[in-house]
Amino acid sequence: MNHKEFLERMNIHTVTVAQAKERIPLIKPILSELVEKYKLFDERSIHLLKVSKGNHEVAKISQVKYETDLLEEELEELRQKLVMLDCVVKDWRTGLVDFVYESGETIVWLCFQHGEDELQFYHYWDAGFRGRRKIDFE
User: Fold this and answer.
1) Structure confidence at residue 76 (pLDDT)
2) Is the entire prediction scored with pTM above 0.70?
3) Domain tally, the chain
4) Partner of 99 at 20 to 30 A CA spacing, among 41, 87, 115, 127?
5) Alpha-carbon torsion 13, 19, 21, 25, what sign?
6) What is the residue range of 56's domain?
């Protein structure tokens, strides 16, 4: 499957650099909440494993499972908000999201991470976070 087929199949829309930059102020509070809730989700998931393996009452296990499920639903709602802004969540823990930018036959990810002030980086499709480069195009 090539990049364009993948984008179509996943219903991912391309954006311009200007459009992505305009969305950053909307994305920042969502990413803050996502990172915070993911940390709680991670902690609750580990706790759920511990209580499930331990000698705990069914009620305790059920309560921890319920809390974990609620956090999972809240995370999915946040992911959907980001999708509506044409973002793809790449790393829940760090709040890393990408936008898809296309120029002719070239497709790259415009990369933004929680804690950054503005959109500054991109990377090629298969390069990942380590391959980030400064945006030098509009």
Assistant:
1) 96
2) yes
3) 1
4) 41
5) negative
6) 3-134
